[in-house]
Structure formats: C-alpha cells, structure tokens
Design a protein that fits this description.
By secondary structure, the protein is an alpha/beta fold. It is 41% helix and 15% strand. Strands 3-2-1-4-5-6-7 form a seven-stranded parallel β-sheet, sandwiched between helices. Helix 4 packs parallel to helix 6. The termini are far apart.
C-alpha cells in the first residue's frame, strides 16, 4: 500500500465547493479519501460533488456557515453519522477583503464580518474536529490532521486589506499552537499560504491587465496558480507521509515571494 493511499480516511473541507477548497477535495477523493464538503451554497455543493462522482473516495455535502457555531455543530454531527469518523479537517472557507477601503475608513462591521468568517470560522471548525480526534486518540486511535488555508498576506504588507491580513496571521499562530497542544494525540496542524491563484475570489483582480502586467514578472513560474496546484500538498498532509511534519506554514506561490 502506498504511503499516500487515503483509503478509509475521512476529511472535511470547508468552502470545498469551489476554488482552492475544491482542488483539495478532488485530490483527496482521487487518493481514496472520503470527503465531506461544507459550503453555504447548495448548488455549488452539488456541482462539486458531481465533479468527483467517479473518484474512489465517497463524497457528501452539507450546508454550513462556519461563522455560526450551531451550523458547524450540526454539520459535524451529520458527517460523523455518515462516515463514523473524521481524520482530517481542512479549514478553507473564507472571504476576501477586496482592498477597497483605507484603514482609517474601515468600519466596525467590516472588521467584525471578516473575523467572524476567516478566524472565528476556523476556531469553530477546528474545535469540533479536535474534540472528535482527541476522543478517538484517548480510545487508542491516534490520528488527526488540521490544515488551515492562510495567505501570503499573513507575512507581507497588504494595503487596504489589513483586516484580512490580521485574520490570516492569527491562523498561522493558531496552527502552531494547536500543533504543540495536540501532538500527544497524534494530531498535526499546519497552514497553507497560497500566492496568486485563479479562483472566484481573485477573478476581478487577476483579469485586470494592469495588475497582471505588474505581478506576472514577479512570479518565476510565469503563471497564476490553479486550485489543482493544492492537491499534492493536501494529499501529503492527509497521509501517513506527513506524520512527523507539524507546526509549518506551506507557501504555494510559484516562487512569488522568493523573487
């Protein structure tokens, strides 16, 4: 059996109905992992599941708003009822800042809305997953993977996007703290930091010729990333191959930050 074979494993992917989350879900399903997609849009959930219909891993979806603890609790209960266990949790759901307002014009509502989804959402989902994983570990089944989608904005200055950057930097710190706290239970915790990736969230800016002309020369790979570029790292992190790899931040950016 391959060290990357995920047969018998179960993973939750929040925001797994599009963009990077869908790229992760598809790769996991192809590796034999059963996946539970949590998203707010029923149509997108169904389309995502249909795209994996021929994969060896089983696929199910749930309507879930990660900013709502009750919604997360319900989705977790339904996932456990369906699959009986959860081995991995990819906290990928998030919203973008848009870069439209100066910091001094930032409203309380904009700040709170960003944190409710991008940070509180990760807290709600990770808490539910970690509780299940530690209970299993205490019963003799030590295995768990917590993975959060962060951003290069957590490392570098992003003007007019400070509220978004703050949530992502907090996610990095959260993953490191959980890595230390949960290691004794066989649970690893890591963050993925995407560069400029083609998704619904970035379509407006990446289609701007002026922006693309300024950014593309700084990407050594000379292309914007695709959701499928996150499949390999997802399978690695979900597999036994990464069992000693925790508290890390994986930069997936085509070399953008190195040049």
């Amino acid at each position: 059996m391959s060290i990357f074979d995920l047969t018998g494993r179960v993973a939750i992917i929040t925001g797994g109905n599009g963009g990077i989350g869908l790229g992760i879900a598809q790769a996991l399903a192809e590796a034999g992992c059963s996946v539970s997609i949590w998203g707010r849009n029923a149509e997108k959930n169904s389309a995502a599941a249909a795209s994996m219909a021929s994969a060896p891993g089983k696929v199910e979806t749930h309507i879930c708003d990660v900013s709502d603890p009750a919604s997360v609790k319900a989705a977790m209960a339904e996932t456990l009822e369906k699959f009986g266990r959860v081995d991995g949790c990819f906290a990928n759901a998030g919203i973008g800042g848009g870069g439209r307002h100066a910091f001094i014009d930032r409203t309380e509502e904009q700040w709170r809305t960003m944190f409710a989804t991008n940070l509180d959402g990760v807290f709600h989902v990770f808490r539910a997953a970690a509780r299940h994983m530690t209970e299993r570990a205490n019963a003799g089944d030590k295995f768990g993977r917590l993975v959060a989608t962060s951003s290069l904005a957590s490392l570098f200055g992003t003007a007019r996007n400070e509220h978004y950057a703050a949530t992502k930097a907090a996610i990095n710190a959260l993953c490191r703290a959980l890595a230390v706290e949960l290691a004794r239970h066989g649970v690893t915790s890591n963050a993925i930091l995407p560069g400029w990736i083609r998704t619904d969230m970035t379509v407006r800016v990446l289609n701007d010729d002026k922006f693309a002309g300024a950014v593309m020369p700084r990407i050594p790979m000379r292309r914007f990333g695709e959701p499928s570029d996150f499949g390999g790292i997802a399978v690695y992190l979900m597999s036994k191959a990464s069992s000693y790899h925790t508290a890390d931040t994986f930069v997936i950016d085509g070399g953008y930050t190195a040049f």
